[in-house]
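HUMAN: Would you supply a protein with fold tokens?

ASSISTANT:
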Amino acid sequence: MHKKLYKAGKVWVAMAVVTATAILGANTASAESTNSAQTSGNQAAYAAANSSENTSGSTAVQSGSDTTSSSQNAVSTSSSNAQSANQNVNVQDNQQAAGKSARDVALDKYASQHVSGYIYSPDVSTANGGYNWFENGQLFTGFRYYMGTYYWFVDGVRQNAGWRQAWGMTYYTDDNGRAVQGHRNINGQDFYFGNDGTYYLRSSGYLYDGSSQNGGYRWYENGKLFTGFRYYMGTFYWFVDGVRQNAGWRQAWGMTYYTDDNGRAVQGTRIIDGRLYDFGNDNSYYSRPVNGYVWDGSSQNGGYRWYDNGNLYTGFKYYMGTFYWFIDGVRQNAGWRQAWGMTYYTDDQGRAVQGRRWIDGGQYFFGTNNSFFLRTNKYVADNDGVYFAGGDGRFLTGSQNIYGRSVSFFGDGRLNTDGLDINFPHWSLNQGALGAPEGCEGVSFQMALSAKGKRVPSLQEIYNRIGYGDGVSPYQGFNGNPFGGARPYTTTVLAAPLAAKLNNAFGVQTEDITGAGPNEILAQLLSYNPVISYIPWDFQVGAGRDHFHVQMIYGYRNGGFLVADPLQYARGANYWISTGEWWYLNSHLQPVGFGAPASQNVAVI
């Protein structure tokens, strides 16, 4: 052993410091087998250190003295020191008599001496041969570097094998309490603690470290206990200080997540604390607003309700091909509904109805174009007939005067067309004479404006508004030059862009009514609206030649339409055509070079 001086009061005392191989190493028993002379020498040194005064000379033992000389030096103190030591013993006896244990008395003694190091102190603990680590008189817990490595102490007692946390790192000590390094297999798992004298764990993953939770496993990242999500065994788990958590809300990557009772991040829809949440189904796991018709366990409609951006929704939602009406997420049944400034009706399944419907003894019309709203104060039509919906939407019956024209309706609301005669005064115009051999659409629009009593602009004005050119798609404007010659393929503008470009221009509105049958055309004429209709110039349809042409319908008589032809060729400037023939031609006409919808028509309102 070697000795180290420390000061106790006014006296320097030699303190024995035993080498690591004798005390901290594997041969711990050698420290316990130290001869009695050494023990008595140490005890004498401690007794001298407790003397309150020592003025009769130094008791320091020279370094290198053997055990016997150490004992002799310690014993050969001055008579005054011996007397002081005896007094100190009396003090200890008094403290013990006052109720303090021998261990507490010893701890008080070391505290007053501010001792530091690996001190022989069997009166504090007999573990490891009676040696304990003190720091400034206090039993120490943590690592201390000694004799070339780190040892782990708890309340001064050197520990053996186990995991340790210090300085924000994780360490492992072997059976002798020494911090390990290099590769180690611990309980069947491989760990790496570096080889640079730093000793801390470098490994990552779900590692067994003997902790008290989750069977002793914790998650490490580069040797540090990890907090956050980690992907493991096919899903994400949430860890706090390495410990896998159970059910709860989690914040990560700017998103919100929820983990189940096993700590796994959930996905899909989940009811948590009585509220529905959506965590996706794409392995992203984060919470997002609930949308759609989803099961939340409610008491109606089989537990399904409609959510919109996380909130129970009131209003119409499109679902499975139609609109349904919801109140606080619950699908409603039959009833009148108000939405978007319109009136609707839902059937017993909550679906918005369309077409003609008998409701509470009256007939109503909700359109046939998937718009579903109630029509009021207008002529309406379906394949069975033409009707007039009054101010409340109910069909009129009997004799009526509508828009200044006397008409009559059957008991079911259908218009009686017997004797009906509609014939709008209009200009008859010839597209060739107007310098527009391909401009039948513009000339038909001019004639419709004249029938509406509006100013008739030039064809150049009209086509400038529509837009034309070789690079213009017929789905966007006029493809080609309306003022030029014919080409191998059709030069035209289709009904939808024609209505869109001319709407609210030149004092009128234009509506694309593509798909209209004879009854809807008649309903437009009854409303004083001429119709631009796509009718073949030669009244032929099919492949082999370009039949495409546009004309204007301006009247009705005896089951047929009155038509003004801007080409003024096959049947003259104005002619009569049965509604059946018109319907066939209109629904089968196709351009050359590209496809087009059937039954193209534009109402000029």
